[in-house]
Design goal:
This is SnoaL-like protein. With about 140 residues, this protein is an alpha+beta fold. It has a single domain, classed as Nuclear Transport Factor 2, Chain: A, CATH 3.10.450.50. It has four helices and seven strands; from the N terminus they run αααββαβββββ. It is globular, with a radius of gyration of 20 Å. The N and C termini lie far apart (about 50 Å).
């Protein structure tokens, strides 16, 4: 009986501590928008990632052409919806590498919907310097 009481209280304590540590909706990404993006040497890509990290939709959209295309793991996705919805609930948590003259960014990523995983953002530009294509997806590195 004594062991049963200890087990009951130990289990109750673990469940209470776990429940107190959880936050579901309306949590913020305080640390992720302060992440160091200085490793990104392409100015426009750095501005885009900074805007994405801080959920600055107007700044983010200002960097893209009016006909910008978004591919998610190679499949077309609604760029405007991504730019107004996902930008609010998704963030890089680290930048692990930058390639292709600063136009491809790889890192750990957090999504309130999909969880944590490695991701890439690959940017393409027009002659005016606007982003015309953004490829995003899960990365394997």
């Amino acid at each position: 009986m004594k062991i049963r009481n200890y087990l009951f209280w130990a289990l109750s304590l673990v469940c209470t501590v776990t429940a107190c540590g959880q936050r579901y909706k309306n949590h913020n990404h305080d640390n992720s928008d302060k992440m160091d993006t200085s490793v990104i040497k392409n100015r426009t890509v750095k501005e885009a990632i900074d805007a994405f990290q801080s959920s600055d939709v107007p700044k983010w959209l200002s960097l893209f052409s009016d006909d910008a295309v978004l591919l998610d793991d190679g499949k077309p996705r609604d760029f405007k919806k991504f730019s107004t919805k996902a930008i609010q609930i998704e963030k890089f948590t680290s930048i692990d590498k930058v390639e292709d003259n600063g136009t491809s960014v790889y890192g750990h990523f957090h999504s309130d919907v999909w969880g944590d995983f490695k991701a890439y953002f690959k940017f393409q530009f027009n002659e005016a310097g606007k982003i015309t294509k953004l490829e995003i997806g899960q990365a394997n590195y």
